Amino acid sequence: MGRDFAKDRSKERVKMPGRKRREEPEEIGFLTTLSVPSEGSVGLTGSWRTFRPVLDGERCNKCLLCWIYCPEACISKDLRINYDYCKGCGVCAEECPTKAMSMVKEDEEEGAAGD
Amino acid sequence: MRLRDFPEEELFLQGSAACQGCPGSAALRVAFKALGRNTVLCVIASCTSVLQSPYPVSALNLPTLNMAFATGGATGSGMAAAAERLAARGKFREKPTILVWAGDGGTYDIGIQALSGAAERNADFIYVCYNNEAYSNTGTQRSGATPYAAWTTNTTKGKEEWRKDVAQIMIAHGIPYVATASLAYPTDMFRKFAKAKEVKGTRYIEIQAPCPPGWKFPSAHTVKVARLAVQTGMWMLYEHENGKTTYTAGTQRIIQGQAKLLPVEEYLKAQGRFRHLFHPERDEERIAAIQKRISGLFEALQFTHKMKEHLMDIEISPRL
Predict the structure, then answer these.
(1) How far is the C-alpha of B320 from the C-alpha of B303, rounded, in Å?
(2) Which residue has the higher pLDDT, B318 or B10?
(3) What's the CA gap between B206 and B111, in Å, rounded?
(4) Is B90 helix (H, G, I), strand (E, B) or coil?
(5) Which of A43, B15, B152, B202 could form a disulfide with B142 if both were Cys (CB 3.0 to 4.6 A apart)?
(6) What are the sequence ranges of the domains in chain A?
(7) Are strands B203-208 and B177-182 parallel, antiparallel or unpaired?
(8) What is the pLDDT along chain A (115 residues), one digit of tens a residue?
(9) Which residue out of B14, B19, B66, B222 would a mutagenesis test of the A interface target, given it has the greatest number of A Cβ atoms within 10 Å?
(10) In what order do the strands lie in the sheet with B97-103?
(11) Which CATH code, of 3.50.30.40, 2.60.40.10, 3.30.70.20, 3.40.50.300, is assigned to A45-105?
């Protein structure tokens, strides 16, 4: 995902009227003030994380609170967590009514943190 | 509307530049789910201008116009007028919803003149103020929405003035729909957005947005602090239409006596920006002043609620 916009834009190169086209590198492309919607717009934000949310499927009662409270839209409606972008804020674990979500330190094994 | 009936489509794309536990992006998600894809967004200078990420990519999967601080109402009016003309010429299959998204700095202080003008003209757009009670984007300076006794970089010993209430100012403009919402009550927020979508004219929705770095609490407590604000009465949930205010969700439960009003201390203690009220010694005077305001207001509301129930009894009683 992400920053292949420059490549796309270069194909839409528009000839500027009344201006002689100089030889310029092909990859600069056509500049515009528009931004393109993209996932991971500041890169893989998962690297910001110190604690990682881990879902215990047996305890989970599928109330979907973690899904709607996640500020980053990293938990899908079928409760899969996208660790590429999860920033590890911990809102999901704090709000989980059955304590099925727990925060595990990044370099430890799953479940090793215990509770 | 139950949580499982919310649409699955995400118009806020993950991997944005928002802080951990950002209330702004959480509010955007619920708003986008309620309003759907046929929405044109205008973002006023605020944290949202930052969290939608640097050029040339954007985390908001909607047509977005980024505008200056003071122009919320004016831009909204212009976009609404343009949408109306284009709809009259048959350029749209369905007329889009115009959503203006501003912070409390762009609403309470800098943008209120343009907003007031637009509300007076009853321009056809939804104005959302996500209120984190300070200029968090530039490092937490005091704003008109900062509550009494709160720390900011300008008010190091606590703000001396009380906050103003722009939701009440908007009600005084006589616009068709005014509502307040909280992050902790997503179904209530969703319902208010869905309702605002169907109304024509200027609609104003204010969302309280507890900001972890600005209010100084752990990022995991964003929703918890938002909920405490409602439970202690520091934030009230209501909607106002047809000249009538209806209290909703947590606030309604307190007024109807189904839930107890928690002491305001619980809300103050949860945040570092009120720490000077408790350390090094308790500042009884200022805590009591805040509690007195809220208790007085809720006592009056609970009294009027009881009186209304009583009056209803009289009306339907066959003996009279």
Answers:
(1) 24
(2) B10
(3) 14
(4) coil
(5) B152
(6) 45-105
(7) parallel
(8) 444 544 555 444 454 444 444 454 445 556 677 888 888 889 899 999 999 999 999 999 999 999 999 999 999 999 999 999 999 999 999 999 999 999 999 886 554 444 4
(9) B14
(10) B64-67, B39-44, B97-103, B126-131, B203-208, B177-182, B238-241, B244-247
(11) 3.30.70.20
CATH 3.30.70.270 fits B3-316, yes or no: no
Tokens at B252, concatenated:
């309604």
What's the pLDDT at A25?
Answer: 47
Judge whether A79 is closer than 8 Å to chain B, CB to CB: no
Q: Spell out which residues of chain B touch residue A73, defining contact as CB-CB under 8 Å.
A: 10, 12-14, 25, 29
Identify the pLDDT of residue B258.
Answer: 93
B29–A77 C-beta distance less than 8 A: no
- The ipTM estimated for the assembled molecules is 0.91
> For B113, which DSSP code?
H
C-beta separation of B224 from B270 below 8 A: yes
Tokens matching residue A95: 């709000």
Q: What are the sequence ranges of the domains in chain B?
A: 3-316
pLDDT in tens, B247-265: 999 999 999 999 999 999 9
Of A5, A39, A63, which has the smallest distance from its Cβ to B56's Cβ? A5
Q: Which residues of B fall within a CB distance of 8 Å from A65?
A: 3
Q: Write out residues 6-65 of A within 8 Å (CB-CB) of B.
A: 32-45, 48, 63-65
The helix-helix angle for B112-121 and B72-88 (nearest 10°) equals: 30
Q: How far apart are CA B22 and CA A115, in angstroms?
A: 26
